[in-house]
Amino acid sequence: MILQLFIKGLSLGAVYALIAIGFSLLWQTSRTINFAQGEFVTLPAFLMVLLALVFKIPFALALILTIIISGLLLGYLMNRVLDRPLIEKGVLPLVVATIALGFMIRDSLIISWTPEALYFPSLVPKKPLHLGDATFSAVDLWNIFVATLIISGLHLFVKRTKTGKALQAVSQNRDVANILGINASKMILLAFLINAVIAGFSSILIAPIYMVKYDMGVELGLKAFYAAIIGGFNQTRGALLGGLLVGLIETFTAAYISTHYKGAFVLIVLMVVIVFKPEGLLGEKELYEYR
């Protein structure tokens, strides 16, 4: 039972971690908090349904098109339309704008499509797998595998490639990066594109479990935000740890205490971390200049 719950928690936590890494990446590079992050997960799911189930495009091609379109549409447009004009005015206007964007996306989906939950096909058969007395879901194992590949690929890209190192430099000190000849604006745009692509993959992984609904991103975005704070908002590895912890806490609380209190226990952990280690479990302290 414990092993089954552990795998289930890791599967859910892996998706939270992917979305939380997007929060962390945007904050490190541009000091942007995207409160429409959950809707960045919702839109690709609807797009996938449109392409695969309505237009009958082959599933693999629909998946590729979904990732490309969502990356360009959400990443590029948000950077150009919202981030660049508003970031110089401070964090608060951008926060308000992203909250408004989230409301606009949800209301638009209700009006233009449906408020009902839509079926989303799974990439793997939903058959149980057995290991001794333990029974696992193939979907959970698939989610863990794919999330591991994406996170590992992102880590190698950042650590081993010239572009990734430039992205690191911008996240550490944008002014110094500009002096060294790095185009900070392009690196920030790249961060927005990576975030949108990761959100697209998260959508494909979670949609067969949650089904596709206009408000599916609300809870996902909120849990990922908690995860980023718990692990450390300014560290990608912190977002990874936070996502896994939130998934495990929810799963074990729901199994052994009550499904009604699983969110409450996550909030308790969040408050404890904020009180005793406000920078997060793996985060680093930052100095802010107040004017």
Structure in words:
- This protein is mostly helical and 291 residues long.
- The protein has one domain (2-217).
- 75% of the residues lie in helices and 3% in strands.
- It contains eleven helices and two strands.
- The protein has helices spanning 2-30, 37-54, 59-87, 91-112, 138-160, 162-172, 174-179, 184-210, 216-231, 236-256, 262-276, and strands at residues 128-131, 134-137.
- A two-stranded antiparallel ribbon has the order 1-2.
- Helix 3 (59-87) packs across helix 8 (184-210) and helix 5 packs antiparallel against helix 8.
- The longest helix is centred in the N-terminal third of the chain and has 29 residues, at 2-30.
- It is globular.
- The model has no long low-confidence stretch (mean pLDDT 90).
Number of domains as seen in the coordinates: 1
Give the terminus-to-terminus CA distance: 55 Å
Order of helices and strands: HHHHEEHHHHHHH
Average pLDDT, all residues: 90
Query: Which parts are unreliable, with pLDDT below 50 for 5 consecutive residues or more?
Result: none
Main beta sheet strand tally, sense and closure: 2 strands, antiparallel
Q: Tell me which oligomeric state these chains represent.
A: single chain
**Which structural class is indicated by helix and strand composition?**
mainly alpha
How does the overall form come out from the CA principal axes?
A: globular
Strand order of the largest sheet: 1-2
The DSSP helix count reads 11
Give the number of DSSP strands: 2
Strand content: under 5%
Q: What share of residues is helical?
A: over 70%
Radius of gyration, CA atoms, in whole angstroms: 19 Å
